[in-house]
Amino acid sequence: MDIASFIGLIGGLGVVMYGAGGNFMMLVDIPSVFITVGGSYLCLYLTFPLSYVLGIFKVMGRCFKTYDFGEKALTQKLVAFSEKARREGILALEEEIQDLDDEFMRNGLRLVVDGTDGEVIRSLMENELNQMEGRHNTWITLINAWATLGPGFGMLGTVIGLIGMLGNLEDKSSLGPNMAVALVTTLYGSLLQNWLFVPMSGKLGYQNAQEAKAREMVIEGVLSIQAGDNPRILAQKMLTYLTPKDRKAIEADIMKD
């Protein structure tokens, strides 16, 4: 569970409620919710395929989960494979890769064991990485599209409210309340964009970058093994991907003579 996302979600709403003087009910208007949230969501169907629009909520749920792509474990595993290949030959890795949970690494090492040229391995693995990033970016674009549509429908609801208000100008006592309700839709549109969807797309973008970095590490490690590099060289390459804290934790172990 990603505590930071919950802090942002609850804290952001709390700030709005505090700004409203604690009177949350004055910000509640059901027709405005339908116009702003419902209208902007339904417009996504004009932009993206059905499967994406229906699946957006599951993807948004990823913002509230933490993902460990195991950069330290990847480094240690790749260095161990490099040492084994150097001692016993590339074919000795065939038994090792059978039990690998990481399909991306397993497929790359399988290509190495099969004697595939390094450039071909790089091309295949980088293409898979690019396709993964493309899928992730499609979801991020979808959430950003909703973020863009929300304020527009908020203004649309405000205009509708103002039309109704101006059509009843003879009732002076209703002008203030009607204006307040009209402006609520603008608030909802701003909340959709700035409280929910822009931050969510940022969190998903961060997760995508972390997963892509882990796969880049695998590509570099696999190609280093294929090229027959000294395990210390491979270790140095892998350490450059780690944070100073993670690097310090395993550097002594993988850089041993």
- Could you give the count of β-strands? 0
Q: What class do helices, strands and sheet pairing give?
A: mainly alpha
Helix content: over 70%
Oligomeric status of the shown chains?
single chain
- Write the H/E string, N to C: HHHHHHHHHH
Question: What ranges have pLDDT less than 50 throughout 5 or more consecutive residues?
Answer: none
Largest pleated sheet: none
Measured by DSSP, the beta-strand proportion falls in under 5%
What gap, in angstroms, lies between the N and C termini?
A: 39 Å
* Overall pLDDT level: 89
> How many helices in DSSP terms?
10
Overall body shape: elongated
Cα-based radius of gyration, to the nearest Å: 26 Å
Number of structural units classed as domains = 1
Question: What secondary-structure arrangement, pairings included, does this model have?
Answer:
Blueprint: H1 3-19, H2 30-43, H3 50-60, H4 71-88, H5 93-97, H6 103-113, H7 118-166, H8 175-227, H9 231-239, H10 244-254
Helix pairs in contact: 2-7, 2-8, 4-8, 4-9, 4-10, 6-8, 7-8, 8-9
What does this structure look like?
This protein is mostly helical and 257 residues long. The protein has one domain (29-57, 70-257). Helix content is 77%, strand content 0%. It has helices at residues 3-19, 30-43, 50-60, 71-88, 93-97, 103-113, 118-166, 175-227, 231-239, 244-254.
